[in-house]
Design goal:
135 residues, 7% strand, Fe-S_metab-assoc_dom, Cysteine desulfuration protein SufE
Amino acid sequence: MRSLSDIAEEYEFLEADERYRLLIELGRELDPMPDALKTDATLVRGCSASVWVYPVEQGDRLQFLADSNAAITKGIIALVLSAVQGKPADEVAAMDIAEALAPFDLKNQLSSNRTQGVPNMIALIKDHASRLAAG
């Protein structure tokens, strides 16, 4: 997975249509999530599209599988995950993920229905990181 800073560097120089294409490409680069993991328990509430996020045990480091039935939304998921994948749980628990995503200005770049579930996805990730960091 690309680093968030690498993605931001590329994103900064793209026009709106190219930014959509980049998000779609990022979504395609996510590790596949088995259909068996796409359950009500892994469904992120508040998203206009269906979004599933599943934590994978990697010691004290965070790893998630995620998917969506919408290409742009899946790209947004990839952005969020690129901010946290492989990082220590305590670091992510203390991290301001929304601030890390600020350079992408998603609220102004995308329609509100595409971004409305992002805070819920961030909350789910931070809750998992906090539990993992607490032991």
